Amino acid sequence: MITIMTTDSSKNTIRVRFAPSPTGHLHVGGARTALYNWLYARKTGGVFVLRIEDTDAQRSTRESYEGILRGMRWLGLDWDEGPDVGGDYGPYIQSARGVLYHTDAARLIEDGKAYHCFCTPERLEELRLEQKEKRLPIKYDGLCRGLSVEEADEKIKAGDPHILRFRMPEEGEARFRDIVRGDFKTANTELDDFVLIKSDGLPTYNFAVVVDDARMKISHVIRGDDHISNTPRQVHIYLALGYKVPKFAHLPMILGGDRARLSKRHGAVSIDWYADQQYLPDAMVNYLALLGWSFDDKQELFSRKALTDKFSLKKVSKNPAMFDNDKMEYINAEHFKKLTPAQKVMHVYHVLKDEGYIPGDFHVDLENPVDLKLVPGTEPLTGNGEKSGGDELGRLFLIVSALGNRLKLLKDAPGHIGYFFKDDYEVDDNAVETHLTRREVPERLEKLADKLAGLNYFDRERVEEVVRALADEMEIEAGELIHPGRVALTGGTVSPDIFQVIVLLGKGKTVERLRKAAGIAKQ
RNA sequence: GGCCCCUUAGUCUAGUGGUCAGGACGCAUGGUUCUCAGCCAUGAAUCAGGGGUUCGACUCCCCUAGGGGCUACCA
């Protein structure tokens, strides 16, 4: 017989959340915050919640909301509860939670912990100006603090615009422990009677975030450092409402190149941009994880699995970090290297197809990657080097393998190997200038074309043999044929092994391009 | 103005009283080679500054400087 120790699961489960406001795209800072929450949830077997904080009615948009979800999906950060998938603690979008805020606000009023304020924005503005002039701390002066509930109700009935303020205790302090920062405390005298509910009836961020986190049973609040100064206010709300204060972990900011907080003006900060550039999501996740966290002094390349195993909030750094694109590219290249040949081909295939390098009738069963592994890569290009039976896939395999580690960004694939698929590939004028304009070049290319045309078996060995033999015969370095040949065949000075290029191009195309280049070179 | 946080090479970081201050990106040089990438080897480059505490400070304390955040009816 098995005895099961029953515990209240809701009590011990770790619940974390990512709570973006839909006022812009998902940027790397937000993505990093989402990632750390996700990693922590996945590592601990906890629950990852996605909540949309749209209490800023003016700036929130549907597009942003969708963009954020798209970005998270691209990164592979799946959420267990959220506006689209539901959950036990919904709704997961603040604009739909109005009654909850008002219910809790009513409790606060009843307990005398919050009060209505009728000061006009103009008066508040004047007050601030005056305090600024006198070099006093800028805070609300408490004018409406003394209003009785009856007086307030009367004004409300009369239709006076009003807001709800928290009644900050005059003595004492708010304290909390931050997993990243350590102990943190703020004297109440530093705080003022901040706003809970705005005159439009919507809660402020500080109020909504507490009500939501508490009611959604969030155990760990993992968010950006920019929120740490507001945390004491939030602790006050938790306490006033009788809610359990969660654990906090405030993450260091991510900075742009000028060390200022990352923002739109720093260019490539949108996750969408990295998706467009065909970065690998796993690489992005790896790099983002490294911005503010490290495992030890040797490992920095992590698979998603390794990250979820090894991630720890305790090892999160306190220092703000700058986003370094070079390192991002490096990490991306490393991840690409680790892909299986079949995976590489799939990725390259997609990019080439999107960019119009592969005709629509080229069919590959991408739903079934196993098929790709079964393709006998060497088969289609034996014999005369012309593709056999339309097996373009085998050819793609060989091209990608010939490319080797040259491909750092998938986006660059067309630039690297576009000439295999199109005749109107990009031509580097400088390359033509330096390699094809010399007097002796046309003859060499013609001869090379002749020799290759005469080959019956078009494989790498034989092609190399022919090229080197011709060089010997002409008493020139092999490079004298190879370099102009490369420009003639690929349009540039950079390519994989030239003999492989020739084979993969096939005899027909090779000869055709060499002759064409010879013709151009003559002029 | 007030309060708070942060500070190891250009960048991301390891380090917690005694280390030649370690790694990675980037950079430079050399090797491999038909180019480029890659790979291999080598190298330059760091504890923000000043005071303490201590036999001994990157490490602990204080001050200064620089950066950042909050101080909104933004989040």
Description:
The chain has 523 residues and is mainly alpha-helical. Among the domains are: 264-336, Orthogonal Bundle (Glutamyl-tRNA Synthetase, domain 2); 339-420, no CATH class; 429-522, Orthogonal Bundle (Arc Repressor Mutant, subunit A), CATH 1.10.10. It has 22 helices and eleven strands. The strands form five sheets. A three-stranded antiparallel β-sheet has the order 3-4-7. It is elongated and about 105 Å long.
Can you tag this structure with a few keywords?
523 residues; mainly alpha; Glutamyl-tRNA Synthetase, domain 2; Arc Repressor Mutant, subunit A; 3-stranded antiparallel beta sheet; two-stranded parallel ribbon; 11 strands; 9% strand; elongated; RNA-binding
Principal-axis shape: elongated
- SSE-based structural type: mainly alpha
Mean pLDDT: 88
Total strand segments:
11
Task: Return residue spans where pLDDT drops below 50 for at least 5 consecutive residues.
Answer: 1-9, 366-390
Q: Tell me the Rg in angstroms.
A: 32 Å
Strand order of the largest sheet: 3-4-7
From the N-terminal CA to the C-terminal CA, the straight-line distance is 93 Å
Reading off the top of the CATH hierarchy, the class of the domain at 429-522 is best stated as Mainly Alpha
Say what the CATH topology of the domain at 429-522 is. Answer: Arc Repressor Mutant, subunit A
Contiguous helical run count: 22
Strand fraction = 5-15%
Second CATH tier, the architecture of the domain at 429-522:
Orthogonal Bundle
What is the helix fraction of residues, given as a range?
40-55%
* Biggest sheet overview: 3 strands, antiparallel
